[in-house]
Design goal:
The chain is mostly helical. The chain is built from 17 helices and no strands. The relative contact order is 0.03. GO terms for molecular function: tubulin binding.
Length: 670
């Protein structure tokens, strides 16, 4: 409770409240101030509630707060029977009711602001059924519901955009980049169109290329589906194997176990649970109730200062000392029989404490085991989501590790072979490039020699020999080119022959694909129509259920509010009757119990207090002069005392002188 109040004070001292409270000032707030503070917090959540509660009736304030708390989905602590007490406490501004509400509101202010904002547009107005018979009202209500659904969708999209983390600058940058790419692609397509337009039958070739692309995409999708189905089949087989292994283990466990051992385990579990139910849990519950009672008592008391706490500590120490003295006296008065019993009592208490400790350890171990099982289940689900298969256990995991090791060694060997083949391929590729370069250079030299041979006149050869060499070179070059053409034609024929069955199979697959696509489209149309009908029925039923639930909640709230007001009025009426009975009663004792008598006494005491305060004021004002006057009178008194003493001394001296004179005269006469 103290943590709750401290949290409330910290939140109220921050923006936007800035109340500058501390624990003492907050605890000393009256009921009206607490209600105004609660109203200020509700006004921060929903600006419509930012009003002064002194300007409206208490019933209106309670109704307004209860309606907003119902919209915010606040659940008061306690059972259903405590709802009336909660409403009554909210009307009267009770601290045990207001403090939890403030703590709940200040914990989730931003979330509740959002909920209050949405409630302005999503709390459905209930229209009576007889009004909906009118077509105009029904159409307007339908438009209202459609607008509400549109608002929901727009709000969801807005929240998604807020949480997506995309800024407007990034979106504009992406749009600009996409527009540039679009312009480049358009230019590239135009250039390709210009290049293709010069080719004969370019439209037919484009259509064939488009069909080829579509068939390749279909082939890729079919291959992907095939691979996915293979993976699913593999995972299903793995799950089946694990289930079979688990079944075998369970069979073995059942075979090995005996009925006596199972019964013993069940008896131990029953004994432990019965101990928890009959001894441990009731004792803990009783201790919790007593601690709760004392805490509530402490909370109900006014705030204590440090001096009060010191006094309480001194009293506690004194009581502890008295308890120790009584225990020592009792120990001294024990007889031998009582001492034996005390030994048994000590042993019994030690055993009970050990039993409680072991029970707590067992309970903690069970809780730890359950938490570990939950964590293991979560990890298993995560692994299943990531890998698509369950986690292996025991021998399966060892077998899987051995299999991975063998695959790893096989992978390393193949990797070395691939590296060797790649190195050899690079060498051969380089050799091929060098040979191609030499071949091209030789061909160029031959062509140059063949072209320039007739015009060259060498002194050691006749002219006819140059012509003959040129003709031979041209013929050899022509023969080589014809051989290459024949080889290419033979390769094309072989490829056609090898592709003929594949093409036939592809045609059959195309026909099947067309049939399947037609069937899929028909099934999809049927599914969409059925789903749309079911969705519409579901939405209408959900709306009806939602409306009925809201109506039920509203009626229940009205009933509780009326019941609370009725109880308040009954209590007030009972108090008024008792007051009237006591005031009219002829018995003076009963009449003294009347509130009017107390009010009269209060007025008399207030008047007496007022007179005493005035008298105190006069005394304070005349205190200084009176003290001075008292001091002067004291000085005057001392002066008169001194004079009196001097006068007495003088009289005594004169009396002594007269006696002496009379004695001298008597002597002279004698």
């Amino acid at each position: 409770m103290s943590d709750q109040i401290q949290f409330i004070v910290e939140k109220l001292n921050q923006e936007p409240f800035r109340k500058n409270y501390n624990l003492i000032t907050f605890d000393s707030l009256e009921s009206v101030q607490l209600l105004q503070l609660l109203n200020d917090v509700l006004g921060e959540i929903d600006p419509k509630h930012a009003v002064d509660i002194r300007e409206e009736l208490p019933e209106q304030t309670a109704k307004r707060m209860l309606s907003l708390l119902g919209i915010l989905k606040y659940k008061p602590p306690g059972s259903i029977s405590d709802l009336s007490a909660f409403r009554q406490g909210l009307v009267t501004g009770s601290k045990p009711v207001i403090h939890p509400v403030l703590h709940w509101l200040l914990q989730r202010t931003n979330e509740l602001k959002k909920r209050a904002y949405l409630a302005r547009f999503l709390v459905k107005l209930e229209v009576p059924a007889e009004f909906l018979q009118d077509d105009t009202v029904a159409d307007i209500n339908k438009q209202y519901e459609e607008l509400m659904e549109a608002f929901k969708n727009l709000h969801k999209e807005c929240e998604q955009l807020k949480t997506s983390g995309l800024s407007t600058a990034e979106i504009r940058r992406d749009i600009g980049a996409m527009e540039e790419e679009k312009d480049q692609l358009i230019k590239r397509v135009e250039r390709l169109k210009k290049r293709v337009e010069t080719v004969q039958n370019h439209q037919r070739m484009l259509e064939i290329a488009r069909q080829l692309r579509l068939e390749k995409e279909k082939e890729e999708s079919l291959a992907q589906q095939k691979q996915e189905q293979k993976n699913q089949l593999f995972h299903a087989e793995q799950r089946l194997q694990r289930a079979q292994l688990q079944l075998k283990e369970m069979h073995h466990a059942v075979v090995d176990s005996k009925p006596e051992s199972l019964m013993k385990k069940l008896e131990e579990e029953i004994n432990f649970n019965s101990y928890l139910v009959t001894e441990k849990i009731p004792r803990e519950l009783e201790s919790k109730k007593t601690s709760t009672y004392f805490l509530q008592k402490v909370v109900a008391e006014p705030a204590m200062s440090q001096s009060d706490l010191d006094v309480l500590e001194i009293k506690i120490n004194e009581v502890n000392a008295q308890m120790n003295q009584l225990i020592e006296k009792r120990m001294m008065k024990y007889e031998p029989i009582d001492s034996k019993f005390s030994m048994y009592r000590q042993q019994a208490s030690i055993i009970s404490r050990k039993k409680e400790a072991k029970a707590e350890e067992l309970q903690a171990a069970k809780e730890e085991m359950s938490s570990t099982e939950r964590q293991m289940l979560q990890k298993t689900n995560q692994a299943h989501e990531l890998e698509g298969s369950e986690v292996l256990k025991g021998d399966e995991f060892k077998h899987y590790v051995n299999k991975l090791r063998s695959k790893n060694t096989f992978y390393k060997k193949k990797r070395l072979e691939i590296a060797e083949i790649t190195a050899e391929y690079g060498i051969l590729q380089r050799t091929e490039e060098l040979l191609k370069q030499r071949h091209e250079a030789i061909q160029q030299q031959l062509v140059i020699q063949a072209v320039t041979a007739p015009t060259v006149h060498h002194p050691s050869f006749p002219e006819s020999s140059y012509i003959r060499r040129w003709v031979i070179i041209v013929l050899t070059y022509t023969i080589l080119s014809l051989c290459q053409v024949k080889k290419l034609n033979s390769m094309v024929a072989e490829k056609k022959a090898s592709l003929a069955p594949v093409i036939k199979e592809l045609r059959q697959l195309r026909q099947k694909c067309q049939e399947l696509t037609q069937e899929c489209d028909e099934k999809k149309i049927q599914y969409d129509s059925c789903a749309a009908g079911l969705e519409s029925n579901r939405s209408t039923l959900e709306q009806e259920v939602k409306g009925l639930l809201e109506e039920c909640a509203q009626e229940e709230s009205n009933y509780r509010y009326i019941n609370c007001m009725k109880r308040n009025l009954e209590v007030q009426l009972q108090r008024a009757k008792e007051e009237m009975k006591a005031y009219v009663s002829p018995d003076p004792q009963e009449r003294r119990k009347a509130i009017r008598q107390y009010t009269r006494m209060i007025l008399e005491q207030e008047n007496l207090g007022k007179k005493l305060r005035e008298k105190q004021k006069v005394v304070r004002e005349s205190h200084g002069p009176n003290m001075k006057q008292i001091k002067m009178w004291q000085d005057f008194k001392q002066l008169m005392e001194c004079k009196r003493e001097c006068f007495l001394k003088q009289q005594n001296q004169t009396a002594i002188g007269q006696v002496i004179q009379e004695g001298g005269k008597d002597r002279l006469v004698l």
